[in-house]
């Protein structure tokens, strides 16, 4: 390379232009940094849509067959859908549709709406409304929970205010996906009829329903078009108050009018009286706010918080709004921890440079290159549309070691020429010119290791695309800055080192002397070194095979989600008591900052036997346990509350499930036969509970629901002119909380609900006094004349489908120290041991499913990284052989990574895999520095291979040690990290630190031997006498 023709020489000759361009680059980065959005992780969630359908009073079986199934048939035709699940309970069905990563959620929403419209004709005619959809993943953790309370306002009025003002306004904010109003008691007028009074007068509930529907309307009336004016017609056709309904004449008895008040009580109430929510121990209405898939969490919450003061000003003075849980606090804390880690890494790297270079100007030059490269990377991140998140910041932390590598190699070579007596400018020109190709080789081969990450598919590929591009862009920037700014500053400021006669050898000189002795011994025992290389290769492969495999570490986000489960036939009152008892235990734990809980049918909670807990923990430094340890600590206390179980799981930033879960991992069983499926689900559940590797095993069967079955005698009914449809309608009027009418105001619409009197609708004996009118004779016919009442049976509270098949979901957590890969093997063994029939299929979902997919691709990813590095090196060196020498440094790194992960009790997770890919890029630098010099010495100076590699090892020893230490110290803060989000970063740091330690100890001695061995194997040089280099001393 002709130095005077290179870009380095131009920059040295034009220092002002170089410095000004560098300042411009820094300014662009400084301007871009505050504009980068903040997120916990890169956006990698599946586009997900939740569809909700309501038919009050319909049984789970009716909802599954008549509502969920017609919808599933239409949804199954939507292209790009990867998963479709549904859950049908009393009066509601929830369907969750998950699509491929490249599917636009807006396009998916349009296709979902079209499918709903197509299915509408096959849905029950008496559904109050068509199914609705939301762009939300019900499995996702809420981003914000607001508590609304009032000491003066009734619950129904407060709920109405929350819905019409707060919820509607917040739902219009960009990024908000769904607002679940827990504890909402939506205002309604309830008509509570007396079966006895109706029978005495000869009326049925159908008479009441039709009378109300015909006397309270809101129809178009037209207008009066006069010669000079137009007057709109209006009537008092709508009824708004209970007393207005009470005055309605529903029939006549012996010529006297029968008012509604004569046969029923009409009261102000709520649509569902069996719901309640608490903020801590205070009853109220809570807004559980989730984001749209793909929306930035921090930006979404910031928009909500900015809008709240204006919304609060519109509320009555007695209403208080409090932020109960804000997930962005832990996100910001986590990013702050990474920023501190970045600062520590920079300081450690600068300290290493000062130790080895022992010259302030050289240290400052390398530091300047580091600062410029990192700052400029923010500008590229902004242009690429990336966010500041845990992975992109970790990429920058790791890149600290890479960035200084280039600068160190350049500055150290210039430093060497200064020591040889060249002037500052000559040393800068020669040093940069000689080392330019080496710097490019190091950086391009490092970038090559990231190429496979860019082509990874699925969620893992989407997650690490930003990581890989951030790291590679920072590396490429550092190449340019190292070959332009570094030699320019060196020509201006670096001075020739001054050595005094009384100076003692420095640390690097003593280290070099030790290495020279060791290298001579290694070259004298080449067969032993080849054996060491072979052993490290074998141990690295064996270590990878046997080390436990995992997906992502369980994070401590400071947020814990809980699902309660009680007996399927529990009453609402008992459920409330048990929830309050658990709430006292949660409130007493010193790690808890705030929490909310709710019971009743609301949002994704479909039964009274289930409830929800949302728990925010204190900042990581203010509590003595992690989220997982908090769960382990509080679990025994919660088990003391009889008749109910609270399943807790730590909220995760990486959420791949498609529905609410009681634990971190899910396994789904499917079969055509629901009864057989239930039997084997219970057997597998019990089998897993006997294995100590699993924790919190549960399934979603909930088979203890009581069913009162009525057998209709169709022949008897026909004699009275009645049908099964008439019986169903009458039962629905009495027990279904049927929405028979509605009235509208300017801001909302409210329902009129028909039911039996509260004293009668909860008793089975009420069926004996239940009457229908015969259309043939007009006589009142008791239901007992048409049907018999069977003994109550047991049935499911909810029915689940997965891909249109009956399904059950097993949820589980893992005991400490158990890897997900081991759990997959153990679960499959459990299925085989109980003899589960092949007619029942099973598959993992969510994180466990993604883990299986990533596990299969891991060896190919590692191989692809190796091939990419080999190809780049082969192109750069125009050789098939020399890249093999450079790649021979990698087995020791892999061995070190596995050993360190094992020592630290970590499984081989995706983060550890990325650490291994980084090592592929980092460690081969040692080989490049040696081989590049040795080849130049052989080709241009005529040295023999052994002399050339010996001189290369000694000459490049200092930059090798400096760059390795820089990379190691850049990763050390990740390994030792503490605080919010540290568990996600630690495996990567552990793998890199372990790999660098072992590879540095081995490759300094094995690489020169491999080089000589390959030279003899492929180039067949003439036999050489043993030189003085290879002595045993």
What does this 3D model show about the protein?
- The chain is of the alpha+beta class.
- It has 5 domains: 3-40 and 331-495 and 509-552 and 852-1019, Up-down Bundle (Multidrug efflux transporter AcrB transmembrane fold); 46-136, Multidrug efflux transporter AcrB pore domain (Alpha-Beta Plaits), CATH 3.30.70.1430; 187-220 and 235-270 and 709-791, 2-Layer Sandwich (Multidrug efflux transporter AcrB TolC docking domain, DN and DC subdomains); 558-651, Alpha-Beta Plaits (2-Layer Sandwich); 659-708 and 792-845, Multidrug efflux transporter AcrB pore domain (Alpha-Beta Plaits).
- The chain is built from 30 helices and 32 strands.
- Strands 1, 2, 3, 4, 20, 21, 30, 31 and 32 form a 9-stranded antiparallel beta sheet that branches. Strands 5, 6, 13, 14, 15, 16, 17, 18 and 19 form a 9-stranded antiparallel beta sheet that branches. It has a 4-stranded mixed beta sheet with strand order 12-7-25-24.
- A hairpin with a 6-residue loop joins strand 26 (771-773) and strand 27.
- The chain is elongated and about 125 Å long.
- The two termini are 38 Å apart.
- The relative contact order is 0.12.
- Pfam families: ACR_tran.
Topology:
Blueprint: H1 7-13, H2 15-32, E1 48-54, H3 60-75, E2 81-89, E3 92-99, H4 105-119, E4 132-134, E5 144-150, H5 155-171, E6 176-182, E7 187-193, H6 195-201, H7 205-215, E8 223-225, E9 230-232, H8 242-246, E10 249-253, E11 256-259, H9 260-263, E12 264-270, E13 276-279, E14 282-291, H10 297-313, E15 319-326, H11 328-357, H12 360-383, H13 390-419, H14 424-454, H15 458-493, H16 507-524, H17 526-546, E16 559-566, H18 572-588, E17 592-599, E18 610-617, H19 627-638, E19 644-650, E20 665-670, H20 674-689, E21 694-699, E22 705-707, E23 710-712, H21 714-719, H22 724-735, E24 738-744, E25 749-756, E26 771-773, E27 780-782, E28 787-789, E29 793-795, E30 798-802, E31 805-814, H23 820-834, E32 841-845, H24 847-877, H25 882-887, H26 890-903, H27 910-941, H28 945-955, H29 957-975, H30 982-1019
Parallel strand pairs: 7-25
Antiparallel strand pairs: 1-3, 1-4, 2-3, 2-30, 5-14, 5-15, 6-14, 7-12, 8-9, 10-11, 13-14, 13-17, 16-18, 16-19, 17-18, 20-31, 20-32, 21-31, 22-29, 23-28, 24-25, 26-27, 30-31
Helix pairs in contact: 1-15, 2-12, 2-15, 3-4, 11-12, 11-13, 11-29, 12-13, 12-15, 13-14, 13-15, 13-29, 14-15, 14-24, 14-27, 16-28, 16-30, 17-26, 17-30, 20-23, 24-27, 26-27, 26-30, 27-28, 27-29, 27-30, 28-30, 29-30
């Amino acid at each position: 390379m002709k130095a005077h023709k290179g870009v380095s020489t131009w920059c040295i000759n034009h220092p002002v232009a170089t410095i000004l361009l560098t300042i411009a680059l820094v300014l662009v980065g400084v301007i871009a940094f505050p504009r980068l959005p903040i997120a916990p992780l890169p956006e990698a969630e599946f586009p997900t849509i939740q569809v909700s359908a309501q038919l009050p009073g319909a049984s789970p079986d009716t909802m599954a067959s008549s509502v969920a199934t017609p919808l599933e048939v239409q949804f199954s035709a939507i292209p790009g859908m990867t998963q479709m699940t549904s859950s049908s309970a009393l009066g509601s069905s929830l369907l969750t549709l998950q699509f491929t990563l490249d599917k636009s959620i807006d396009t998916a929403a349009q296709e979902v709406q079209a499918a709903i419209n197509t299915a509408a004709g096959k849905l029950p005619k008496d559904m109050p409304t068509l199914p609705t959809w939301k762009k939300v993943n019900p499995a996702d953790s809420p981003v914000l929970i607001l508590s609304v309370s009032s000491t003066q306002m009734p619950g129904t009025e407060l709920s109405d205010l929350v819905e019409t003002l707060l919820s509607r306004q917040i739902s219009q904010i960009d990024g908000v996906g769904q607002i679940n109003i827990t504890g909402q008691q939506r205002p309604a007028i309830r008509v509570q009829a007396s079966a006895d009074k109706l029978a005495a007068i000869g009326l049925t509930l159908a008479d009441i329903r039709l009378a109300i529907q015909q006397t309270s309307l809101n129809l178009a009336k037209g207008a009066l078009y006069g010669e000079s004016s137009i007057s709109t017609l209006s009537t008092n056709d709508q009824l708004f108050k209970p007393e207005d309904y009470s005055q309605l004449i529903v029939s006549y008895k012996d010529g006297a009018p029968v008012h509604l008040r004569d046969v029923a009580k009409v009261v102000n109430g709520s649509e569902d009286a069996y719901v309640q929510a608490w903020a801590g121990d205070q009853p109220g209405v809570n807004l559980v706010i989730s984001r749209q898939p793909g929306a930035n969490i921090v930006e979404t919450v910031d928009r909500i918080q900015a809008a709240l003061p204006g919304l609060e000003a519109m509320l009555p003075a007695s209403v208080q709004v409090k932020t109960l849980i804000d997930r962005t606090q832990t996100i910001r804390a986590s990013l702050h921890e990474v920023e501190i880690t970045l600062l520590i890494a920079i300081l450690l790297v600068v300290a290493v440079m000062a130790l080895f270079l022992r010259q302030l100007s050289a240290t400052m030059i390398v530091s300047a290159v580091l600062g410029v490269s990192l700052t400029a990377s923010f500008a590229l991140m902004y242009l690429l549309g990336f966010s500041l998140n845990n992975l992109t910041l970790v990429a920058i932390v790791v890149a600290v070691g890479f960035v200084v590598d280039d600068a160190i190699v350049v500055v150290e070579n210039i430093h060497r020429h200064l020591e040889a007596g060249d002037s500052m400018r000559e040393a800068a020109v020669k040093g940069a010119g000689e080392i330019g190709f080496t710097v490019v080789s190091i950086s391009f081969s490092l970038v090559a290791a990231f190429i496979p990450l860019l082509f990874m598919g699925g969620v893992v590929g989407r997650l690490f695309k930003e990581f890989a591009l951030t790291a590679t862009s920072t590396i490429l920037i550092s190449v340019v800055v190292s070959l332009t700014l570094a030699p320019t500053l060196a020509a201006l400021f670096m001075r020739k080192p001054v050595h005094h006669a009384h100076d003692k050898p420095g640390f690097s000189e003593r280290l070099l002397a030790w290495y020279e002795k060791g290298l001579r011994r290694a070259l004298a025992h080449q067969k032993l070194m080849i054996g060491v290389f072979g052993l490290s290769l074998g141990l690295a492969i064996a270590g990878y095979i046997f080390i436990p495999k995992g997906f992502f570490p369980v994070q401590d986000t400071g947020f814990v989600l809980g699902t309660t489960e009680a007996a399927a036939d529990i009453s609402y009152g008992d459920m409330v008591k048990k929830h309050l008892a658990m709430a006292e235990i949660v409130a007493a734990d010193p790690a808890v900052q705030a929490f909310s809980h709710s019971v009743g049918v609301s949002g994704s909670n479909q039964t009274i036997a289930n409830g929800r807990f949302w728990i925010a923990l204190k900042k990581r430094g203010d509590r003595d346990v992690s989220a997982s340890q908090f769960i382990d600590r509080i679990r025994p206390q919660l088990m003391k509350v009889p008749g109910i179980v609270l399943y807790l799981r730590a909220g995760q930033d990486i959420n791949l499930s498609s529905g609410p879960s009681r634990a971190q991992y899910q396994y789904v069983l499917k079969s055509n036969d629901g009864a057989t499926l239930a039997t084997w689900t219970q057997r597998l559940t019990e089998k897993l509970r006997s294995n100590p590797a699993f924790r919190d095993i549960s399934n979603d069967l909930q088979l203890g629901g009581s069913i009162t079955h009525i057998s209709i005698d169709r022949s008897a009914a026909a004699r009275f002119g009645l049908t099964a449809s008439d019986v169903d309608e009458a039962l629905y009027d009495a027990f279904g909380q049927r929405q028979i009418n509605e009235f509208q105001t300017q801001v909302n619409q409210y329902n009129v609900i028909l039911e039996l009197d509260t004293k009668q609708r909860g008793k089975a004996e009420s069926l004996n006094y239940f009457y229908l009118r015969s259309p043939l004779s007009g006589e009142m016919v008791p239901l007992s004349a048409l049907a018999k009442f069977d003994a109550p049976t047991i049935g499911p509270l909810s029915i689940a489908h997965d891909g249109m098949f009956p399904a059950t979901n097993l949820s589980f957590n893992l005991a400490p120290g158990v890897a997900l890969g081991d759990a997959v093997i153990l679960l499959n063994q459990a299925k085989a041991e109980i003899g589960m029939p092949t007619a029942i299929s099973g598959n993992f979902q969510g994180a466990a499913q993604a883990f299986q997919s990533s596990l299969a691709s891991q060896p190919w990813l590692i191989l692809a990284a190796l091939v990419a590095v080999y190809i780049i090196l082969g192109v750069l060196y125009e050789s098939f052989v020399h890249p093999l020498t450079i790649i021979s440094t990698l087995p020791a790194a892999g061995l070190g990574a596995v050993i360190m992960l094992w020592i630290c009790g970590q499984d081989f997770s995706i983060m550890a895999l990325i650490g291994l890919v980084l090592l592929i890029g980092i460690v081969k630098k040692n080989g490049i520095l040696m081989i590049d010099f040795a080849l130049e010495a052989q080709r241009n100076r005529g040295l023999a291979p052994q002399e050339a590699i010996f001189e290369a090892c000694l000459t490049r020893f200092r930059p090798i040690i400096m760059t390795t230490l820089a990379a190691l110290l850049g990763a050390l803060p990740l390994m030792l990290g503490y605080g919010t989000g540290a568990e996600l970063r630690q495996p990567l740091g552990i793998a890199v630190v372990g790999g660098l330690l072992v590879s540095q100890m081995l490759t300094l001695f094995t690489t020169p031997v491999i080089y000589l061995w390959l030279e003899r194997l492929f180039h067949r040089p003439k036999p050489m006498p043993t030189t003085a280099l290879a002595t045993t001393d």
